[in-house]
Amino acid sequence: MTTPLGLSTDAARRTPAEPPAVREPRHVPLTHLVRGGIIEGVHHGSAVVLGPDGQIAFATGDPEVAFYPRSALKPVQAVALTRAGLPLDGELLALTAASHSGQERHQTAALRILAWAGLTEDALRNVPDLPYGAAEREAWLRAGHGPTRLAQNCSGKHAAMLLTARLNDWPLEGYLDPAHPLQRLIADTVADLTGQRVAGVTLDGCGAPLFSVSLHGLARAAARIATAAADTPEGRVAAALRSHPEMLSGTGRDVARLMSAVPGLIAKDGFEGVQVAALPDGHAIAVKISDGADRARMPVTAALLARCGVASETLAEFATAPVTGGGTTVGQLHAVDALTAPAV
Which portions of the chain have biased composition (kind: Basic and acidic residues) (predicted)? Predict the structure, then answer.
């Protein structure tokens, strides 16, 4: 059975805990940029690792403080839409949770979702933008194109929101209003999967409502999705992400490569240095880089996944980034020693 907003009755009965604290985060060093044997730069942040039992196995910094997960929350949003009857699977469901590169296949897939609802690109209310992928953006500009709603990296999510609204006979106008039934459903699902009430609501870069939780809550939500039965909304989303990592991001993107390298992993990045990932056994990690530096996100992620038992050779390409000088490698960016410990 489901509630009027599409939540299962079991989900509706769960009472989320208090929202995370709203205060200045107590971040700590997570990565060092070393040039010529000297630490040239330090990226601070917070991180958490959950064990298969759902308990915190490792934490550093301030994983309980409220923050905005940005696009790392998209798999949770996809679960909400699927709970409300979104009929998509496979690559189209993966695109629903995507920050895509704007490749032709991404834009074509978003149009397919809109067509299912009897709509065109004109119905989208995300912010017009150029393709997110660097190569795709350059090719787009060379072809004489400008910013469009379809090329913007969240167009798949917005198309799926419109289809979900259409199927539930909810208004299409105002589908981004936090008071709209669609967005209330998403807020309820965020609270359900994270296990905590939302601390604050604002707008994401694309114009959709964005809900504040903690790193701990975000990791808990990822674990719920990664371990779900195949016939549940959570399990359908997990299967789509695992089968179509390049629809979730784009060709050559680090998240797609990481998911392809680690069997069963689901992972999603977000602007301002956010990363979440979870394994089928229930291990989950979440990362926030305090200064938003994207370059620091993956070395920390690799160190935390090693703590979850993923083989170091599998993670080698993600664990460090070279620092160059004069065309040669003179150092590297890597996680601090405190993160690189035995598996838990």
Answer: 11-25
